[in-house]
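ESCALATION

Customer reports they have been waiting on this structure for their group meeting. Please prioritize. Original submission:
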Amino acid sequence: MTRLLGSAMVAALLACCPSFASAGDVPSGPTVVERPESDVVLLRLRLDQATLADTLPTYENRGSVLVPLGEICRLLGLGISVELARGFASGFFIQERRRFALDLVARTVLVDGKAKRFDLTRIELHRDDIYVDATLLSEWLPLHLDVDLLASAITARPEEKLPLQLRLEREQKLTSLVGGVDRAVYPRFKLPYRLLDGPFIDQALRLSRVAAPGGGQRNALEYSTYATGDVLFMEGSAFVSGTQQGVADSRFSLGRKDPDGRLLGPLGAREVSVGDVFHPGMDLIAAPTSGPGLVISNFPLDLQSQFDRQSFRGDLPPGWEAELYRGAELLAFAQARPDGLYEFLDVPLLFGLNVFHVELYGPQGQHRSETRRFNVLDTLTPKGRLYYRLAGDDPGSRLLGTGLPGAEARSSVEVSAGLAKNLSLSMGVASLGLQDRQHTYGKAALRAYWGFLFANVDFVIDRGGGSAWQGTALSRLGAFGLQVQHAEFDRFVSELYPSGELLLSRTAIRLDAAIPETLLPTIPILFELRQDRFAGGQRVTSISGRVSAFRRGLAIANQMNWNYTSGFGPLAASTGSGQLLVSKFLQRFAVRGEIAYAVKPGAAITSVALTGEKRVGEGLLLSAGVNRINSSGDTRFLAGVSRTDGPIGYTVTAEYSSLKGLGASALLSLSVGRDGRGGGWFTQARPLAGSGAVSGRAFLDANGNGLMDTGEQAIAGAGFLVNGAGSLIRTSARGEALLPNLSPYQDFDLAVAPSTLEDPFWIPAVAGVRVSPRPGKVARVDFPVVVSGEISGTVYLRGIGKDQQASGVELELVDQHGVVRQKARSGYDGFYDIAAIVPGKYTLSVTAASVVRLRVSAPSLAVTIASSGTVLDGIDFVLPANVS
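Update from on-call: job pushed to the front of the queue and completed.
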């Protein structure tokens, strides 16, 4: 019935209103703005430490940014909806009494009962949403939207807690208690390994004119190639960089990762890697390193490598930079290394949940973000579980090029067992070559957790002589986090404690807190005191302090370190130094600065680096910078222009050095990948090799088997939801669309956006799928669409002489597996309607709660919805009184 009435109404509107017919779903009253797809700027939407959308469509407008009102409200959980046909938005903010109404035709907005007017040029009506100037929306609602175009992000900062924030806080609290919450609803898509598949290739070429040794100028050539894909039914990667003189560095790896632990049969491994691998290090023995080697492990893939700190490692193309954040706290900068990697080693973990963001920035203005979550409590092995890791690498060796100077080969075997709910035991053996000899260590560790206290004790014995133990306790009391650590050494030597003056003991205390936001933003503070006692009688005391702040896209952090020696024997001079870091993006302008300074023995600035970037025109980025190193007396000035869009990216830079004179360079970058289905190639300026992709195909599944059979219709123009947020990518005439640049090893929920289907009665046959992309791999996912069915009728209560219409009766539609698919409640006249039903066989009945409440007997009815879309009208229910 609803379908027939709806079709008739649409036909009448099209016949009577030609202007309406020409404008699609939008009447001729409000003007519809048609912008080219090239104008779209895709941004991430953040709320606190959560990313709500990775691809939010926005548009630049007169120096500001237009954001989709309906999509923003949906993602933030606000009760405001958009009616495109009227150019109208209405609803409430947090509480129903706080009403909001926007009328584009009348040019008025109603906020909390107060009518306001606005500049219509700051709002645009599009076919998919009403786009509002972000600053204008911040004026209307107690909600600030901080837009960072160069960071490709919008940060929502409500003046009061949103219901969504309260829910996220509950989830985070639950995460800290039980070690994780899975939001999974969709089934996981299996991504098989193939003999050969891919590849994705990033190619960079730099031509430079630089100062030559002995004076004059010379030309220099640098190149790098990074490729990923499936090789020999494993995930393969290769990196080669060099100059005109030959290969300078290289790394190769093959491996597999399976979060469900189904590798190597009975071993149940989650990771198997050979080639260039990452050794996580071992407490008291070895530092984290990367180099040629082997890793076999069944530890969870997202588990931190050590209980109180974490090392971060990833791919970083030439010319890129990386920033590390804990929440909004800026921790460190890093530039690309010759081997195409970035590393942040031994970053301290605070008690509770730690959310880290690695922000990666390219020379042509590209931006990538990686998010990692760690909890100290997760290092407790669950009761009854057994984890193991076999790892070995040689960071001083490379097949081509050079390795890490001074680093020695190491190998280790670790086993961890959960003894009780809050107690685990781990044991290990490690072999490490040091300057004096080859050392073999045996290690045991106990970890326990009691409510507000986490404790860890390590014992290490060197087979050649020497031993050590270390105890650590972590806790949080209110806003204060505390870590106390003490270690004792008996003639112990390792990579972390090299030979020389023998260390007897080390005591460290760390305190962290955050000054809550008042007139100033939240200010995280970290203070650490450490004292080393040596066999010669000396005591070395180290004091470090860190304070940082983040406000509206600007992050500032200052770190200070003091060292002084006391006791007997020769005493080293006291030293004090610091580092001030400044970043980030303010609308269309970006700034990044670093000042290194000494406080003792003499106060001086040792180096200064400052760079700025500004977007101009279509896809162009201007950059300038200055770098001063006082020890060498060299001052460098740089200026450049980059192209960020299109199939090829480039950066042209001019440089002046006070010591070496003028120089110039040109960097060309190109990324290519194989299309997931047609086998063709596509190119883009943005790097591809470190990411995955999905090739989605939408089709009308006429026979309901979930497969696209010969003769079935491909659906063009269909869009997708990525983690609940809409994507502007649409399917081609073949029903196919490629979604590239998906972060690897992270779960993405993908679904067809029903609003993009041309027939309002088409619905996705499945709600969606969950995909975990792999680098260099295209996941080929089919999304069948079916014609939905509908059931309607009236519910009656059988009375004496005449049946009465029954309101408020709840009915449920149950599938063949006993799963309730939909519910409906009868209206005041007893009428009910269940629409958008996926084809299949069902049982329709009154719910048990309604049967008990009304004291009636309720029949059930078997119904079938055909794949062509069945409309069942007049399916009435007569409920007789239950005489029993």
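Sent to customer with the following note: Confidence is low (pLDDT under 50) at residues 1-28, 173-184.
Escalation resolved.
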